[in-house]
């Protein structure tokens, strides 16, 4: 005789796993109404679904940034569609992972994170990811994370805009407020590097060639063209380098002048993400 699967039992299983009602009923039927076995059944089913969906391109998603007095964390979690990236379950999963990273000073890679115990659960982050795949029906992947740890005299900060572009930063001197302000500045500007020394010769050569090609049809003498190309290249550097940019909150001074006033120096940490996940993920797939 088959056990009666009550609505209360189904709700209890849903509360434990977050799975759909029909999936919970099926799991309870398959396990003769045993709640613990039903949880295991759904976890295994989640693993199967996760494996099947793993080859599908996850080119949407969210960026989460958290920081405190000890570390700053930038985390990117991908899914397949913008619809799922706006789902509350996906948002909470991403934010909880960022908080876990912020509190756990020994986790510094995606593999480390996947092996951690998920907050408020008795299973790993990877198991939670698999359950979320089963719940939302899409491939969900933790694509990357970046971590900067604070030290005496070193401040960290961060900022994320609309879950799409994020920055974390490491600052010698100054304070955490300044670090956050600079992270916001980097998000708001097309900042490619901290100083001109951080621009690669290849990038500068490519830009010079592009400007020369654009101006070639002007018919100007070679010496004039060279001067115009140099002017455009210098303007590109001024607009792309953090230290040369007018500070967002006070455009009357540059970031370099602001740092001098605060007796501070940006060490590293421009972990800026492009908004077009699809382009970056597809580029990775093509190069693999």
General description of the model:
The chain is of the alpha+beta class and 288 residues long. The protein contains 12 helices and 8 strands. The strands form 3 sheets. It has a 3-stranded antiparallel beta sheet. A 3-stranded antiparallel beta sheet has the order 4-5-8, with helices on one face. It is elongated and about 90 Å long. The N and C termini lie far apart (54 Å).
Walk me through the topology.
Layout lengths: L6 H11 L3 H10 L4 H19 L6 E8 L3 E9 L2 H4 L2 H16 L6 H6 L9 H12 L4 E9 L4 E8 L3 E8 L3 H13 L12 H15 L6 H19 L5 E2 L2 E5 H7 L3 E4 L8 H11 L1
Antiparallel strand pairs: 1-2, 2-3, 4-5, 5-8, 6-7
Helix pairs in contact: 1-2, 1-3, 2-3, 3-7, 5-7, 9-10
Apparent shape: elongated
Percent helix range: 40-55%
Unreliable runs = 274-278
Strand neighbour order, sheet with most strands: 1-2-3
Backbone structural class: alpha+beta
| Radius of gyration over all CA atoms, rounded | 25 Å
Percent strand? 15-25%
Number of strands: 8
Oligomeric form of this entry? single chain
The largest sheet, given as strand count, sense and whether it forms a barrel, is: 3 strands, antiparallel
For the record, give the distance between the C-alpha atoms at the N and C termini, rounded to a whole number.
54 Å
On the 0-100 scale, what is the average pLDDT? 83
Number of helix segments? 12
Order of helices and strands: HHHEEHHHHEEEHHHEEHEH
């Amino acid at each position: 005789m088959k056990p009666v699967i009550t609505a209360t039992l189904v709700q209890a299983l849903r509360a434990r796993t977050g799975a759909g009602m029909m999936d919970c009923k099926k799991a309870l039927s398959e396990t003769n109404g045993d709640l613990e076995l039903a949880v295991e059944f759904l976890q295994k089913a989640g693993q199967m679904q996760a494996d099947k969906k793993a080859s599908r391109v996850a080119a949407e998603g969210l960026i989460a940034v958290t920081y405190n007095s000890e570390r700053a964390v930038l985390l990117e979690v991908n899914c397949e569609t913008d619809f799922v990236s706006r789902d509350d379950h996906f948002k909470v999963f991403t934010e909880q992972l960022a908080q876990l990273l912020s509190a756990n000073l020994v986790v510094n890679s995606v593999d480390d994170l996947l092996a951690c115990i998920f907050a408020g659960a008795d299973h790993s982050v990877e198991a939670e990811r698999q359950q979320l795949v089963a719940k939302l029906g899409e491939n969900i992947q933790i694509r990357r994370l970046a971590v900067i740890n604070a030290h005496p005299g070193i401040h960290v900060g961060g900022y994320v805009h609309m879950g799409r572009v994020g920055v974390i930063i490491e600052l010698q001197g100054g304070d955490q407020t300044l670090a956050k302000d600079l992270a916001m500045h980097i998000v708001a500007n097309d900042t490619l590097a901290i100083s001109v020394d951080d621009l690669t010769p290849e990038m500068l050569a490519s830009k010079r060639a592009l400007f020369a090609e654009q101006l070639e049809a002007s018919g100007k003498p070679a010496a004039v063209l060279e001067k115009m190309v140099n002017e455009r290249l210098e303007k590109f550097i001024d607009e792309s380098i953090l230290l040369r940019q007018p500070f967002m909150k006070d455009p009357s001074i540059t970031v370099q002048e602001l740092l001098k006033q605060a007796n501070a120096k940006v060490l590293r940490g421009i972990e800026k993400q492009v908004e077009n996940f699809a382009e970056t993920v597809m580029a990775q797939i093509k190069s693999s």
